[in-house]
Amino acid sequence: MSVPLRWRLLDERSGVTLTDCTDIDGLFVDRVFPVEPLYERYTLVRCAPSGPLLAAIDGTGPAWFGNLVVEGAHIPGRPVSERCGNQCRDCYEISEELLDVRVVGHRPAVDDPGLLDIELEGHRRDDDNNRGGTVPPAVFGYRLIVWPSISGATEGTSAGECRDIAGLFHERPDTWPPGPPLTLLGCRPGLTGSFEAELAHVRVDGTAHPMGWGQRVFGRVVATRPSALGDDLVDVTLDARIPEPLAANDHPFWDMWRTGGPSEPNRWATLDRSDRYLWVRAAAIHRSHVPDKPAGRVYHLDGRYVTDYDAFYCAIGEAINGPGGWFGGDLFWLHENAATGDGGATPGFHLIWHNSQIARTHLIPGYDHKRWLPAVTFDDLVRCLTEDGVKLELS
Predict the structure, then answer these.
(1) Can you tell me the distance from the alpha carbon of 275 to that of 271, in angstroms, rounded to the nearest whole number?
(2) Cα(237)–Cα(75) distance, rounded to whole angstroms?
(3) Which InterPro entries does the record cross-reference, listed alphabetically (predicted)?
(4) For residue 371, what are the domain limits?
(5) Staple partner for 145: which of 24, 69, 176, 314, CB 3.0–4.6 Å?
């Protein structure tokens, strides 16, 4: 009896198959991702606030203002007196973003009573800027930009400048820690030495679907032993970890997609929002790249379960491409698919959104603590679809 080979390692550069295997110990882990962030206290030192930050201090505006971007105001060594202009690209690239920020206090600066030390509460967006936020950049101060907390806004508002930021640059635990060392179980022999590979999910029809950057496998072979899964197979221990391992409770998703995907619509409806996001991601990985369906076709979006942002993408994916279908997972891909095609429907298509009142009730202005951005509203989605040429009918 042949053993199903479910995973494939593809050379990062050439795309050549390095090996196939039955399972991967360390790919699915018993955790919930991403880990909820820790809220921190920051101090804007010697700050000259303006705009929404000043309003938060003097009481004319809310203490909470969403996200705050801090950009380097000047890099030492540049031929200017102290600060670069607002268009300094090098300074712009030295930036950090603080999320869900609230002003919690302020006081006159000790060495300059005309300025303020302002206390904030929030958390840092997890990224690679400035060595992962552990080392202060070499700058003479920071420009402050409040990213709007209202949906649909596309530009930030200046909130002043400060000389330093205390409490921002330090070591933190990983919000999405890498998985344990990997062991490839039931592999075809041949994988040796060091490699940089893309991981792909292999379906029963033999098609391989690359997983993406978060599931790449960079490392080397540590040991090889005969596998209990087959006389001609081996288990390979690697000096490698998955950067963003998959949650163990999502294993059934991958088994379902491997065998062809969901056979009826709305299988996602009972999931919580985090799992709906993972559903959309799995649908994107397993999408069929086929020509768009002919122009003039009418599509029906079942809106009964569209109670959050990710549910909308589950529903429109199935409206266009059937159960488990994908038509984007964010506003960028929604626009690309609706306006330029290659998502399954010829642009200018007719979409009937049934039970749209449910989404209108749930997708309202506010702050999205899953995306850490202003919430995308029902009106935003309607505007995006219609501006991209979709003949939208709400029912």
Answers:
(1) 6
(2) 46
(3) Barstar-like_sf (IPR035905)
(4) 261-394
(5) 69
**One domain for residues 130 and 194:** no
| CATH code assigned at 343 | 3.30.370.10
Q: 177-217, pLDDT tens digit by residue?
A: 778 899 999 999 889 999 999 999 999 999 999 998 889 99
- From 213, 199, 97, select the one nearest 156 (Cα to Cα): 97
| Tokens 């949906």 found at | 151
391-394 sheet: strands from edge to edge: 298-302, 350-354, 391-394
For residue 52, CA distances in Å to 55, 62, 68, 79 come to: 5, 8, 11, 32
Six-digit token string for 279: 């559903």
Strand partners, 21: 7
* CA–CA separation, 157 and 147 (whole Å): 7
Q: What is the DSSP track for 109-132?
A: ETTEEEEEEEEEEEEE--SSHHHH
Compute the half-sphere exposure of residue 1: CA atoms within 13 Å on the CB side of its CA.
Answer: 3
